[in-house]
Amino acid sequence: MINGALSYPPFTPLEVPPFGTDILGFTIFAKVIQGFKYTFFIGLLLSSAQILISLFLSILTLYKLGSALLPIFSYLDKLFTLIPKPFLLLLLIGPYYHALLFSAEDVQPAANLEFMLIQLLILFLVGLPNLVKLYHAELTFLFKQDFALASQTLGSSKLRSVRYSFKPQLIELTLNLFFKVLTQNLSLFIYLAYFQLYLGGSLVTQLDASTNYTVTISNEWSGLIGQNINRLASTPWTVLVPLAFYIGLVFLLNGIKRALIGGMQNHSI
């Protein structure tokens, strides 16, 4: 009841503060709070896995057995450079998503978990070759430095040099790459959500006899943006509020990155 009259959603931020509701009547503020843990922790888990695995593979490329991996990653990196990542992800994830919807009348939680794992695996593999190449280039550069050559002359192994001699340089590079990769992954989440490939799957709600409304199950922020993007003109707050939180998160991550890198540089001085 608003002003003595029965009203129906969506409600504006003036009618239901602070951020209004979506077309189903759920408050945007509650969805943003609920979806933060999925947006941040999925991005954090994915980015951490990419960084750690790429560093491990880069160390393997220093040895004879692992050197065969470098041409493969270099080729994949060139291939992924030619094909933009959003379109590549759409080609890889889209068919599985539509097959899932076609094979099941209702999306079950187990199927959504499986779909999210497929999404994360593809995102992981697509971002891996470039990171391996960057780490390998950095390690190759460090091994050519005078202090590294002197250390190897005195009998230090390559693994020991990586663990101890190159530790400051690798930590700084890892921090830079981590925040860069995390920001890129958050952007890719939005690209996927635009095509309704929400992390964790989606549910189709029938508003009336002729209108369906596809919603994200996890309520992660990119999904909130994607499910309402077609209603930007009629209900702009349903898109702009999650987008503002998304932008704020990216600025916060960049601020943390600058503070950490600046602190390391001041400490080294």
UniProtKB/TrEMBL annotation:
The chain crosses the membrane at residues 38-63, 75-97, 117-135, 173-194, 237-256. It comes from the Bacteria. Keywords: Membrane, Transmembrane, Transmembrane helix. This is Peptide ABC transporter permease. It comes from Carnobacterium antarcticum.
